[in-house]
Design goal:
Elements: H1 2-15, H2 21-29, H3 39-55, E1 57-60, H4 68-79, E2 95-99, E3 106-110, E4 116-120, E5 125-127, E6 133-136, H5 137-140, H6 151-161, H7 179-198, H8 213-226, H9 228-234, H10 236-246
Parallel strand pairs: 1-2, 2-6
Antiparallel strand pairs: 3-4, 5-6
Helix pairs in contact: 2-4, 3-4, 6-8, 8-9, 9-10
Length: 253
Amino acid sequence: MFDRIRNWWRKRIIKRSRISEDQWSRAFSAVPLLDRLPDDDKRRLRELAILFLHQKSFSGAHGLDVSEDMSLLIALQACLPILNLGIEWYRNWVSIIVYPAGFAPERTVVDEYGLAHRMKQPLSGEAWLRGPVILSWAATENAGNLDGSNVVIHEFVHKLDMLNGAANGFPPLHIEMDPGSWSRIFTEAFDDFQQKIQHGVDTGINSYAATSPAEFIAVLGEVFFERPEIILRQYPDVYGKLKSFFLQDPVGR
């Protein structure tokens, strides 16, 4: 009964959407990443984006006015990872904050001697556990240009990773997926990637992925959707796991 009511409500939201065809056309044209999607996937992505915009709240920082077109551009890219998972995978949080450019939150970092230091680190995106997603519009505006770098996908993969606690590179897996196999394959790949970065090997994957398992899966998420052949070539077993998790095969497209 609950599922029927929920599905009815979602169809009602989609049917009542006031997003014009011109807006959809501009948004899809601005994200070359979406060009290779089949028409049926584009239709489902539109419906997910409508639900996403209905559920989430956008606000601008430092005086930025977040327009409907900007929100739609973010929503389409944010919903790509959950295209075959569903909007419920973005549950238990609401807010998306958009800065005009990069931002530098101040944090306390404890060094190896136990001394605390106040530091500012420039960022283009951030995802908080049970909190908002924060994005830089300067980094988001052209995020879907198929260069293997996509701050929107990166931060929303963090959100998927956080569904079972703090981000650690181990999101909640589907019931048919083996957690032990996931841990082994990603640990081996992460260790190998760190070694390659230390030795200056060009993998085609952003070296930021070497900083932690959480960043490893988030960066790989960007590459999986934008330049999937890189992961398939470098780490075919990892590609297989990502394919099983996202229920998508970008190389197959």
